[in-house]
Amino acid sequence: MAHLELNPDRVLPSDPTVRPLAREIYASVKDLPIISPHGHVPAQWLADDEPFGDPTSLLLTPDHYVNRLLHASGVSLADLGVGQSTFTPEQARAAFRHLCTHWTVFRGTPVRFWFESELAEIFGIDLMPSADTADEIYDAIAAQLVTPAFRPRALYDRFGIEFIATTDDPCDDLASHAKLAADPTWTGTVAPTFRPDKYLEPAAAGWNDLIDRLGEVSGVDTGSYAGWLAAMENRRAFFKANGAVSTDHSHRDARIEPIDDAEADRLYALARAGRISAAEADTLRRNFMFAQARMAADDGLVMTLHPAVYRNHHTPTFDTYGADVGCDIPMAVEYTNALQPVLAAFGTSPGFHLVPFTIDETVYSRELAPLAGFYPSVFVGVPWWFIDAPEAMARFRGAITETAGFTRTSGFIDDTRAYLSIPARHDLSRRVDSGYLAKLVGEHRLTLDEALEAAHELVVGNPKRAFKL
Amino acid sequence: MAHLELNPDRVLPSDPTVRPLAREIYASVKDLPIISPHGHVPAQWLADDEPFGDPTSLLLTPDHYVNRLLHASGVSLADLGVGQSTFTPEQARAAFRHLCTHWTVFRGTPVRFWFESELAEIFGIDLMPSADTADEIYDAIAAQLVTPAFRPRALYDRFGIEFIATTDDPCDDLASHAKLAADPTWTGTVAPTFRPDKYLEPAAAGWNDLIDRLGEVSGVDTGSYAGWLAAMENRRAFFKANGAVSTDHSHRDARIEPIDDAEADRLYALARAGRISAAEADTLRRNFMFAQARMAADDGLVMTLHPAVYRNHHTPTFDTYGADVGCDIPMAVEYTNALQPVLAAFGTSPGFHLVPFTIDETVYSRELAPLAGFYPSVFVGVPWWFIDAPEAMARFRGAITETAGFTRTSGFIDDTRAYLSIPARHDLSRRVDSGYLAKLVGEHRLTLDEALEAAHELVVGNPKRAFKL
Amino acid sequence: MAHLELNPDRVLPSDPTVRPLAREIYASVKDLPIISPHGHVPAQWLADDEPFGDPTSLLLTPDHYVNRLLHASGVSLADLGVGQSTFTPEQARAAFRHLCTHWTVFRGTPVRFWFESELAEIFGIDLMPSADTADEIYDAIAAQLVTPAFRPRALYDRFGIEFIATTDDPCDDLASHAKLAADPTWTGTVAPTFRPDKYLEPAAAGWNDLIDRLGEVSGVDTGSYAGWLAAMENRRAFFKANGAVSTDHSHRDARIEPIDDAEADRLYALARAGRISAAEADTLRRNFMFAQARMAADDGLVMTLHPAVYRNHHTPTFDTYGADVGCDIPMAVEYTNALQPVLAAFGTSPGFHLVPFTIDETVYSRELAPLAGFYPSVFVGVPWWFIDAPEAMARFRGAITETAGFTRTSGFIDDTRAYLSIPARHDLSRRVDSGYLAKLVGEHRLTLDEALEAAHELVVGNPKRAFKL
């Protein structure tokens, strides 16, 4: 059985000139607290602080980063527990065995880095996953998950988390957030994030029901466009009162563009009547986004954009298992034209912050760095999802820094539902950024002192500045 | 006269930490057999096993990789023998002199690596090409080409080829393949590849004649769309019976999309009547492609895509010299939307394999790695044509691996008509992949044992898995 | 106060195998003369040879490369002197203090390299810019600017400039160029560049006035399209007679496409009547560009393209401060289709040279290298504007060289209005190219002798060949 041992220098550059510099820079930031301004961990976990279930339901089934490559390798999603209302302990163990048996397919991926970090650093396991070690690893994790040290709050402390954000429906009552706020034994910070996507897609199935519900929850009549605006302002205020610092938006394209009120009224009425066309719905959605931006300039909630993903690309998988199971595929994105109207309107407004993310790396040097290099409101979002990985993160710095420097970027965003992977994800980011900075020192483009200062800023200063923490 | 000497470490990373690792990984794969699932070497060469002609007609005239940069440097294609029905020995020698005289323009290109490898390793020549050495090199090559050791079959053995595929018209009788199959003295494998491009472009000049001929050869009446389908199935079956493992497709875009049969009937009738519009022809072609995919899911022939090249960009050159002479220019490609319908239909079908290639590197991290990281049917094609080069190949691994790992890629494809360059092309790929793996070891992202295993898989396992060998 | 000291090896690769090679290659080119075939330094400076003003008006206010990141960091453009008709000495000093106070935001950007090079190498200042050092640096620069050694001509000599081009309106009388030509004490070369953009945008405000003026200046009636052509030919001839070697063009897209004369007549008449639509104006502009290309094939002026920038993206900034103040944002560009008509027409014409630049890096390997690798008329422009930076320049070589080698590129272009930054810009380019070449030597892809030769060519041979100097 292969031994699992994490090299302390992993992911740092191999160049013998740069390695010791990277080691020193990384050492200076590795133990800094974790700031996580955007993610998907449920607040309820921390509010209720119940023990986690079995290893599979915690680490495997809900994590589409892991499932997708297993699916590509011939394992069915059902066998991994996806979409299964009942999943026996034997099935859960078998699912975990699939993961370990196929462990070699993750070579070269960040999943491997994250998961092995979790095994070694959280669970103290020194076995490499394989068919031979699957059961032993499974048992070792399971045995620890039932102990108090592995409850959500204990891990929050152990992970050194200082701030974490959840992602929430505008109609959510944020009960878990309120429960935490009211709990004198809780000393952390869990902020909600306003995620109104579904309420901005007037041609999508169920939109009218959602808007009805929005009316009920906000106590505002959403029969008119003006009502929609008022209801949104109402819910944003509610989120802000419950600690929210940002709103998050993921649509097919990045376009944000106003239409005049009369046209908005007309399209809104069409949509409420269920008679809006796809093209009109796009127009209305882009106007809804402009309205969100206007509200952001007013209430100061930071606006993050995660556009241009083809959701549920494999229709049969969506029909069987639903959304978020690994078949969302990125598309090309365009920002320069798409954001012109909103930045002409709010780009220099003191209250407005916009953090655009992309999986289309071509926009980093071409569009996002130039935008963030001029607009005080724009902070380039770090690599997200598929490209939250060592080489992609290094390419990001290489593409952004020469135009926008270090200060105009968002700080690391883990964006994860995999709670136990959070330390490893932040650690990986710190390693990569340390390596990038060390390379600049090795090329005499920065002094070591400057690099140490920049590294600290990337971990602490940037997320606080971009997300107004 | 400059001496030509190949450094054994050429193209391996210079980093002193990584170099010895790369050397060890490369040493473990350098002598593995060559598997070449897609290329353009004529089967007739191996069937007839006649000696090659002069150096120019073998190495220069037919190789647009070489000609194009000479053309850009002011040498006319005619002087290189392109499109010349007669070309005297003096002209052939002069053409070769052009190549050697302009040898410096190839600095930094893979043509240089390939050609110098051929000179040194196949012909044992130790002179650097230049105006001064042109004739001596020419004579040294010519003297060897007439010897038995330089006949096609002898080179096949010497090169260590295990499998090679040709590219063939659907109406081809595959006589050379049959001759080889019937020859007890032949122990290699030369598989045909079904390349139906011209039969799928209903607005192109000559399409109706081709479809008539398809009807004759298949014995199926191609007067109707149903007939086209039956004729295609017939020819695919014929190719498969003659050893084909794949079909290859190169159109302006990657879109594959079905239309209903009535609409297909209507457009097909229009096309047969010579009255189809350009837009309708695109629609019909994308439906033809969908039909090919459906057949692939049935008969199991692997589908490879090579889209988005502007063919014959310089019209006057095409008018004078015809196609494939060096003025095809790549364009941007889109895969996420374009492949959605076909992957929704066949993406998880057990018999279906799709290998998309691209010269537009932007789709590697954005689209192809995510697609291959979910769909068990999709294997990312390695860099092709212009980007079959060391740094581009390293960028490919850097863009693909973090999302799709190593197992979801196609294995190296030489795609060449330059028979003598095949060993050098595969060697270059092995060097680059070894260097990439060594870097991961140097950064403690892989162990050396894992890298050795992955390197072997890339050369042997991946092409066998992707192409079902 | 931090000491400013330039490391002699700055920006050279850190890899210990490559560093000494890079040092040797760089040493061989660092002192070669500067050839600057495209830029924005006013000829009047050299013609009149007056002392420069204060440090801010020379180094800060007119340089949007510097201003933009200060603006993003919260400094108003007005405080930097932009668009201010009066700016007191106190304001100038305060502006410079803003720059120094925010110096850390430039970490990792080429602005830092250029500016610190200017401080140390031109002014002999050994203080790192900061709030503490701002005044001392300001005074040290101011004290030197009034001395004879810092007059434009003295600096021209000290910088080792051999050739420099300005950028001029077609109606410009080129008086300063003529003055220089007539001055026996002047031994340098300052060539005008024909920049007709505004005369090719028939829907833009003021176009008709410009065309009227073009008629007056050329003495040709511009009432008809034929008149426009004749007037353009007239002014191109005037520029050529005054030493111009090239024309420069920057439009929203790269399309160059002819229409027939009757249609051109019709659209031209519409435009002159102020009734042309936006779409028709694009058509006419692309035809105007085709006409410029035809003239270029005739008169031999090299055509440079700088397309696909969204000018004045932040409308309120444009309304207040005008153009060229830092809010131009790049867009995606397409060249393969866009240039097909013009290259089919003139791509192999002996007199025609086309140098396409891009800020969209995706076209380097996909489109520009293949184009320059076939067409003798096409030379790939080096990275421009936002990507005139070390890592971007290295990516450029990595993307271009494997397809087009070294000979098919333009040589370095500084494109700057910042006269004092010219040596640093060329120096940075030489460092990066030396590093790239050294890497090839370190990987045994070039010999050191070949790299030395290539480095010299990039600095001397390429610009002379591309720009016919």
TrEMBL record, chains A, B, C:
InterPro entries: Metal_Hydrolase, Uronate_isomerase. It is an enzyme of class 5 (isomerase). GO terms for biological process: D-galacturonate catabolic process; D-glucuronate catabolic process. Pathway: Carbohydrate metabolism; pentose and glucuronate interconversion. GO terms for molecular function: glucuronate isomerase activity. Its EC number is 5.3.1.12. This is Uronate isomerase. The keyword Isomerase applies. Gene3D superfamilies: Metal-dependent hydrolases, uronate isomerase, domain 2, chain A. NCBIfam families: PRK02925.1 (NF002794). Belongs to the metallo-dependent hydrolases superfamily. Uronate isomerase family. Transmembrane segments: none annotated. Keywords: Isomerase. Pfam families: UxaC (PF02614). It catalyses: D-glucuronate = D-fructuronate.
